[in-house]
């Protein structure tokens, strides 16, 4: 039935939704080309029929979408990304929130700690992820040293994350001591994702990557932190490496979602580091489920490639570019000509020598 609808008409409501999402994407990433829905916007798809473009487009996830998921008690999916391809994969998988987490300092840049990464490095990665993100709600981590000095510093750098990094929200670590900063950010319209429990940027003072809130006193302090962050305006809070019962209790007393990582099944959503669940990074924390072991696959493929190059099995004929036969025939004649010339050059001194012999 939809087939009989003349072109130019929208056949079904989901297409309408998808078109709206596409326009929002376009507005965000290609504001200068915002006139037509797809004209010039999605360059890599410009040769495909419009219908194909809609297929993997889903409605844009906004703060409102997240709020609705939370109200419905539907777990919120969050996944990290650190560049264009990993961002695209997260978006295409239908993940609701993409986090450009500063763990990329370790898993993508090889630093020993997340504290090493700079604001400029985070912006560089965030922009790349944004280019691959259409629907997912994009959050950028504020790196260590970019927000602790005072609320002004935090606003300046959070504004950069939105303007230059193309993020939609920022995440920052810390409890009630960060409340005035979070209040300023949310008052100027920057959505803030809080982060308590194990706060990796403070690993030096925590004595390493250690589970937090294991004593009643620590759990009580964490509850107070969560409440202070909610009051300051966080739209959600990450709970990292916290006993399940503590995380579940915090989730139950809050009216904003909690996003758990090593915090059990009672949270309103879950986040993991992409490299960990794909088996691309060496050591994986206990709380991580490794869904694939891609590093083994990749090393296997690279070894096969290497062997093929050594044995000349690669490249094969199908990897080479043909030439029109007429041109090829002429080219063969040309190479013959060069060959003869070379032979003459080689034989010329010999000829001269034998001529001398004769004289
Ligand atoms: N690849 C990666 N994945 C992560 O999830 C991650 C990072 N990197 N880097 C920053 C933080 C650090 N993370 C961690 C790391 C280890 C534990 C952990 O399970 N700690 C154990 C042992 C710690 C120790 O012995 O020092 C614990 O029982 O506390 C928790 C969170 C989570 N974050
Ligand atoms: C693991 C998440 C919560 C994070 O902070 C990061 O990726 O840096």
TrEMBL record:
A GO BP entry is:
pantothenate biosynthetic process
Among InterPro entries, the record links this protein to: Pantoate_hydroxy_MeTrfase, Pyrv/PenolPyrv_kinase-like_dom, Pyrv_kinase-like_dom_sf
* Pathway the protein takes part in: Cofactor biosynthesis; (R)-pantothenate biosynthesis; (R)-pantoate from 3-methyl-2-oxobutanoate: step 1/2
**Record CDD domains:** KPHMT-like (cd06557)
- UniProt superkingdom: Eukaryota
Cellular component aspect of the GO annotation: mitochondrion
- The answer on whether this UniProt entry bears the keyword Transferase reads yes
Q: Which reaction(s) does its UniProt entry say it catalyses?
A: (6R)-5,10-methylene-5,6,7,8-tetrahydrofolate + 3-methyl-2-oxobutanoate + H2O = 2-dehydropantoate + (6S)-5,6,7,8-tetrahydrofolate
Which GO terms of the molecular function aspect are on file? 3-methyl-2-oxobutanoate hydroxymethyltransferase activity; magnesium ion binding
| Record EC number | 2.1.2.11
Functional summary from the UniProt entry: Catalyzes the reversible reaction in which hydroxymethyl group from 5,10-methylenetetrahydrofolate is transferred onto alpha-ketoisovalerate to form ketopantoate.
**Family in the record:** Belongs to the PanB family.
Protein name from the UniProt record: 3-methyl-2-oxobutanoate hydroxymethyltransferase
Question: Which species is this record about?
Answer: Dissophora globulifera
């Amino acid at each position: 039935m939809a087939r009989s609808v003349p072109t130019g008409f929208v056949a079904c409501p989901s297409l309408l939704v998808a078109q709206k999402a596409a326009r929002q994407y376009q507005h965000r990433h290609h504001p200068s080309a915002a006139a037509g829905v797809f004209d010039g916007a999605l360059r890599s798809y410009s040769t495909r029929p419009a219908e194909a473009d809609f297929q993997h487009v889903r409605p844009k996830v906004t703060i409102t979408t997240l709020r609705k998921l939370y109200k419905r008690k539907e777990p919120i999916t969050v996944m990290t990304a650190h560049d264009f391809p990993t961002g695209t994969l997260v978006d295409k998988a239908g993940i609701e929130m993409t986090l450009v987490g500063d763990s990329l300092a370790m898993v993508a840049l090889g630093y020993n700690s997340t504290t090493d990464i700079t604001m400029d490095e985070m912006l560089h990665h965030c922009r790349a992820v944004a280019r691959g993100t259409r629907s997912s709600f994009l959050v950028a981590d504020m790196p260590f040293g970019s927000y602790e000095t005072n609320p002004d510093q935090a606003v300046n750098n959070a504004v950069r994350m939105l303007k230059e990094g193309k993020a939609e929200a920022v995440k920052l670590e810390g409890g009630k001591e960060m409340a005035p900063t979070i209040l300023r950010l949310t008052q100027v319209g920057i959505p803030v994702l809080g982060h308590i429990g194990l706060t990796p940027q403070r690993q030096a003072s925590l004595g390493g990557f250690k589970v937090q809130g294991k004593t009643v006193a620590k759990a009580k302090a964490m509850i107070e932190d969560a409440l202070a962050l909610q009051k300051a305006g966080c739209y959600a809070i990450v709970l990292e490496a916290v006993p399940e019962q503590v995380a579940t209790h915090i989730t139950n007393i809050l009216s904003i979602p909690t996003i758990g990582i090593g915090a059990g099944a009672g949270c309103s959503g879950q986040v993991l580091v992409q490299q960990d669940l794909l088996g691309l990074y060496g050591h994986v924390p206990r709380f991580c489920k490794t869904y694939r072991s891609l590093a083994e696959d990749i090393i296997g493929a690279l070894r096969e490639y290497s062997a093929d190059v050594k044995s000349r099995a690669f490249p094969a004929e199908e990897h080479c570019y043909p030439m029109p036969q007429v041109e090829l025939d002429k080219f063969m004649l040309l190479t013959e000509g060069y060959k003869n010339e070379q032979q003459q050059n080689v034989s010329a001194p010999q000829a001269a020598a034998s001529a001398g012999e004769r004289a």
